[in-house]
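Researcher: Predict the fold of Phosphate uptake regulator PhoU.
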Amino acid sequence: MEFRKVQRTGGSSYVISLPKEWVQSMNIKKNEPLPIKIQADGSLLILPRPSEEKEPRTKEFNADTIENPTFLFRCLVGSYIAGYTAVRVSSSAKLSPATRKAVRDFSSMTIGQQIVEETDSSILIKDILNPSEMPFANSVKRMFVIIGTMFTDVMTALETKDRALAEDVINRDVEVDKLQWLVSRQYHLMFWDATLREKLHVSVEEASNYYVVSRTLERIGDHGVRIASHIPVLLDHGADPEIVADIKVATKNAMDILHSSMRALFSSNIVDANRTIDMVAGLAGMTDGISALAHREEGELAQSIGYIAESIRRAGEYSSDIAEAIINQLIRENDG
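Model: Structure tokens for Phosphate uptake regulator PhoU follow.
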């Protein structure tokens, strides 16, 4: 850390010089106005220029060296989460159909990513979303609503023997992934754009907590998909009505835990968060009972019932993880 002396000029102004290396690297000119903001912790934030004037962050991928379209898709998602505002995929020859499909899939499965230029050998994707238009809380609430309907509908599919509805639940998980990637992107953008936290009206600690919650919600959604994927097996083998009834009760209990944790999140209620954690013990007893009943079945049916019981339990446990994160955040805030 470098220390610089504060000087007084004109009897009322205090002056401190800026590091020459920083001024040159930021291309700051004489008499150029710089944004200055006093932070909540008392530190002083000096920005090189308003964030709207920053040069776009561009990432380039060479399709000649990334031939696997799945690998390319993962790289594109990684660049999105890292906060790049422009991504170019190019090749020394003509882009393959598989490569183009990977790029189109990425554009359709992310929020704000638009293909703006396309030639035989190159595709340019640009971010058209203003990050401040999608607050963390809105994205997390939307994830919660989608996941809640996924678990409700998967139980309806089991009760009404609706295979199409179970398949629809699986397909809905894409929307959960979209929102989680967006939360991850905006969280990482905060470390590149220091003004974003002000635009989103959140502290770094709050953003970190929303990021953790979004990751947990994504995992809960994955278990909803896992349950839906085993519904056809229960329907094919005619699962015992007693087991079906117990699965429905346990799923409702898991969703009650999720609803309780989310209420605690948005009300900042540490008592409710603690009460939510205590609810998990009851769910564990329910899922253990379902697993015991599964042993009365055979083969594929027994296995699927066991997987469903495990996913219900995990959904409840992940929900309690959200409550634990809330307690940790509130304790930190009270210390501040």
